[in-house]
Amino acid sequence: MAVEATPRINARYLESFTNTTVRILGRVTSLRGENATIDANGSVQLHLNRQDAHLTLNNAVEIIGKVQPDLSIKVFQAMDFGSNIGAISSPCFSTSISRVHDFEASKHRSSSPLDFNAVEAVVDATHRYKEIFYNTD
Questions:
Q1: Which of the listed residues 5, 11, 97, 137 has the most CB atoms within 10 Å of its CB?
Q2: 39 pairs with which residues across the strands?
Q3: Rounded distance between C-alpha atoms, residue 125 and residue 123, angstroms
């Protein structure tokens, strides 16, 4: 059984992946029934199926779906990561590390400690070294 590659993208890559199954990580900015919008370095419209209509506003979410001709995404699978993804919770870290982490998180627009700069770096690397991650046929 062949496994379909799901390149990691953000909003700026949508046009290059029309009719392709992709993986995208963003923050839920609006919910309207079976439709949602995420911020993934730009606004992305999602068409949810009934099973994946469980997203929560302002949470981080990873979507696997197909980019439609109108640059929206038909969702095949959605994973809601919650609002505190990436939070340090191990007792092994000192309170000073926690304070630095809290300070860094407070510099972003959202209260979520997910580092979207790191997400963007992964997306950029995926496309810089695409021969490793997906076929360009």
A1: 11
A2: 27, 43
A3: 5
- Please report where in the chains the tokens 């939070």 appear, as a residue: 87
Strand, coil or helix: 65: strand
17 touches 69 (CB < 8 A)? no
Q: Give Cα separations from 41 to 14, 27, 94, 119, 121 (angstroms).
A: 11, 10, 33, 10, 12
Task: Report yes or no: 109 and 115 within 8 Å, Cβ to Cβ.
Answer: no
CB distance 76 to 65 below 8 Å: yes
User: Which DSSP letter does residue 50 get?
Assistant: G
Rounded mean pLDDT for each run of 10 residues along the chain, 137 residues in total: 77 94 95 93 92 84 96 95 64 41 45 64 74 68
Q: What stretch of H or E contains 38? A: strand 35-39
- As a dihedral over the C-alpha atoms of residue 10, residue 11, residue 17, residue 21, rounded to 10 degrees, the angle is 60
